[in-house]
């Protein structure tokens, strides 16, 4: 059977964090999915926070995965980061070993961790003498540098250069991402490695009671890091406009769930300092899985007005529990929402206002989408991992 090595550098780098990012969840899904597919033929490796590369003892890796699962299912009471002293025992236990290096057929990496250090990746692959399968989420920092952190475009170009040079096969999380990667590599005069598209699975949403407010007011839910490309600005200006037009009793709530990101000063100013929004907008920066499930199940709709995305996971999570979605009309959103979600130009303020109020009032647009949801089929992790295993086995046969 094929010997597979999974790089869990990203998960180890998050040893102090209580709540996961989307990439954290994907790396965890790969750990669980490849364990199911390969059993004892799966081993773990990492670039440790200390900079040392090596194998992670199997029992230690599995115990750490279980620890993260327990931490992530908290109800949101734990915020911020664990202290370095609290995390130190795990940091020590997860120190890589040098035994076993070179025994794998295929090395799999499901995160962009350390890809911006091509020499580090080359050394890792040279030591392992394994084929390399990696995942690409998006090329947003390259295609839309205005939405990235300062210097983000340069870092991401380094990551994609590593992918172009070193990957034997790439798994792209959407056709939109695959097309972007192909264009970028061909634009550099290179031949892209084989690219296989596998939509991210939508994890089961906990079966918990729907979240309701005591005054029974409806709410719409926006999920994702608070950063410019997510277009929170549209929603906040929209809610301020609605607050100026309608009686208080008719104004729905907007619940914004996500940590505060970067380059978002104007958005934060509105959240913190706009008195017209304060009664109608709730910001939740940390949220456990159970609480998030309640928010998803109770929302009149999930709103995603992003300018660009590599994927639309909140769309899948919402539709999976029968909650309608209003989303910007971009390719990545349509790949997930199909013909079910309502799509609008991310700059169409009047259109978004009409859609928001219709869904809050359970109007015709809302009822029509509810009727369509029954035909929607969620992308799932078993299907994704089936594609991943096919890619791994094809790579292994090329050794």
Description:
This protein is an alpha/beta fold and 399 residues long. 44% of the residues lie in helices and 14% in strands. It has helices at 9-13, 22-38, 58-72, 84-93, 118-128, 140-143, 152-166, 175-187, 232-245, 265-273, 289-298, 313-320, 331-337, 349-360, 364-373, 381-397, and strands spanning 4-7, 42-47, 53-56, 106-109, 131-136, 169-172, 195-197, 219-223, 253-257, 281-284, 301-304, 325-328, 342-344. The strands form two sheets. Strands 3-2-1-4-5-6-7 form a seven-stranded mixed beta sheet, sandwiched between helices. Helix 10 (265-273) links the parallel strand 9 (253-257) and strand 10 (281-284). Helix 2 (22-38) crosses helix 16 and helix 14 packs across helix 15. The radius of gyration is 22 Å and the shape is globular. The mean pLDDT is 94.
């Amino acid at each position: 059977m094929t010997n597979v090595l999974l790089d869990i550098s990203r998960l180890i780098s998050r040893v102090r964090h209580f709540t996961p990012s989307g990439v954290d969840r994907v790396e965890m899904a790969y750990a669980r999915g490849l364990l199911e597919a390969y059993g004892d033929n799966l081993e773990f490796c990492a670039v440790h926070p200390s900079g040392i590369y090596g194998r992670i003892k199997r029992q230690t890796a599995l115990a750490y995965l279980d620890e993260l699962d327990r931490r992530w299912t908290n109800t949101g009471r734990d915020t911020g980061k664990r202290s370095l002293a609290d995390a130190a025992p795990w940091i020590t236990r997860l120190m890589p070993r040098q035994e076993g290096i070179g025994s794998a057929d295929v090395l799999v990496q499901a995160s962009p961790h350390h890809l911006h250090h091509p020499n580090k990746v080359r050394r890792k692959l040279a030591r392992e003498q394994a084929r390399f399968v990696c995942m690409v989420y998006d090329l947003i920092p390259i295609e839309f540098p205005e939405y990235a952190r300062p210097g983000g475009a340069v870092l991401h170009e380094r990551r994609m250069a590593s992918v172009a040079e070193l990957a034997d096969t790439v798994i792209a999380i959407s056709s939109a991402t695959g097309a972007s990667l192909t264009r970028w590599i061909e634009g550099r005069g290179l031949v892209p490695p084989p690219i296989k598209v596998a939509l991210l699975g939508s994890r089961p949403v906990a079966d918990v009671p729907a979240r309701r407010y005591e005054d029974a007011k409806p709410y719409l839910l926006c999920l994702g890091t608070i950063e410019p490309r997510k277009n929170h600005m549209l929603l906040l200006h929209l809610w301020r406009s609605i607050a100026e037009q309608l009686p208080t009793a008719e104004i729905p709530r907007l619940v914004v769930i996500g940590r505060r990101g970067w380059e978002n000063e104007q958005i934060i100013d509105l959240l913190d300092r706009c008195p017209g929004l304060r009664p109608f907008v709730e910001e939740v920066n940390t949220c456990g899985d159970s609480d998030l499930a309640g928010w998803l199940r109770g929302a009149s709709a999930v709103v995603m007005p992003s300018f660009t995305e590599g994927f639309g996971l909140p769309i899948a999570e919402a539709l999976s529990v029968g909650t309608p979605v209003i989303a910007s009309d971009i390719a990545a959103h349509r790949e997930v929402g199909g013909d079910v979600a309502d799509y609008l130009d991310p700059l169409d303020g009047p259109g978004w206002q009409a859609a928001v109020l219709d869904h809050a009032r359970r109007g015709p647009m809302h009822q029509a989408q509810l009727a369509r949801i029954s035909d929607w089929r969620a992308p799932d992790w078993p299907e994704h991992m089936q594609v991943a295993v096919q890619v791994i086995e094809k790579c292994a046969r090329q050794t």
